[in-house]
């Protein structure tokens, strides 16, 4: 039987639930994070939903012709500093989420505390190596090996370049071997490690 075809398109609000599922199922260094936290949706509240809220025009999805739901996505902001300020001032408080200081300080809650701390602070408000945009990309295993990741990246980068953005960065955890190998393959350069994961930068031709 012929394999299904991966197609790219712009995000639609009706995709949200499917994308939350993709986010959770890839959040543990590319593997399924279901059950790692008391509330699985915390992953999406930090790494997906704020981008869909603030920048739906920079969200693209991949779907397969034999599946009814989106099976991967890329989301981004074109201004990390402004995004981080909005995240902390508006997005995080609007969720009514507990602060990191309210989560038990023990090994069982260490990951939750880490993520909540990031939620309160927002993404790093800087532009490493002159790259003010940043992105998150997640694909279910069924979409991988079809060129969908590269195609999503090129689609987003073309949009950012058309807006005059000089560069985009992404950070991968040191345990995420797939991401560490992926970014150099799609035109990103690795910056010196800073202890908080590996940051990659792709410089963009001005549109």
TrEMBL record:
Pfam families the UniProt entry points to: Acetyltransf_1
Top-level lineage group: Bacteria
Source organism of the structure: Salana multivorans
Keyword ATP-binding in annotation: no
Protein name: Acetyltransferase (GNAT) family protein
Stretches assigned to coiled coil: none
Domain N-acetyltransferase: 62-205
GO molecular function, one term: acyltransferase activity, transferring groups other than amino-acyl groups
């Amino acid at each position: 039987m012929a394999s299904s075809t991966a197609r790219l398109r712009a995000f639609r609000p009706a995709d949200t639930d499917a994308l939350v599922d993709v986010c959770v199922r890839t959040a543990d260094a590319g593997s399924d994070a279901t059950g790692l936290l008391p509330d699985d949706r915390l992953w999406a509240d930090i790494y997906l939903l704020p981008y869909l809220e603030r920048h739906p025009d920079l969200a693209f999805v991949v779907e397969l012709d034999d599946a009814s739901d989106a099976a991967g996505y890329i989301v981004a902001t074109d201004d990390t500093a402004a995004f981080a300020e909005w995240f902390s001032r508006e997005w995080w408080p609007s969720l009514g989420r507990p602060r990191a200081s309210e989560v038990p300080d023990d090994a069982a809650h260490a990951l939750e505390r880490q993520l909540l701390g990031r939620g309160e602070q927002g993404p790093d408000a800087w532009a490493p190596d002159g790259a003010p945009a940043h992105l998150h990309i997640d694909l279910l295993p069924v979409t991988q090996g079809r060129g969908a990741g590269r195609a999503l990246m090129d689609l987003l980068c073309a949009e950012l370049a058309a807006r005059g953005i000089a560069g985009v960065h992404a950070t991968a955890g040191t345990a995420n071997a797939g991401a560490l190998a992926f970014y150099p393959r799609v035109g990103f350069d690795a910056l010196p490690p800073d202890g908080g994961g590996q940051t990659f930068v792709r410089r963009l031709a001005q549109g």
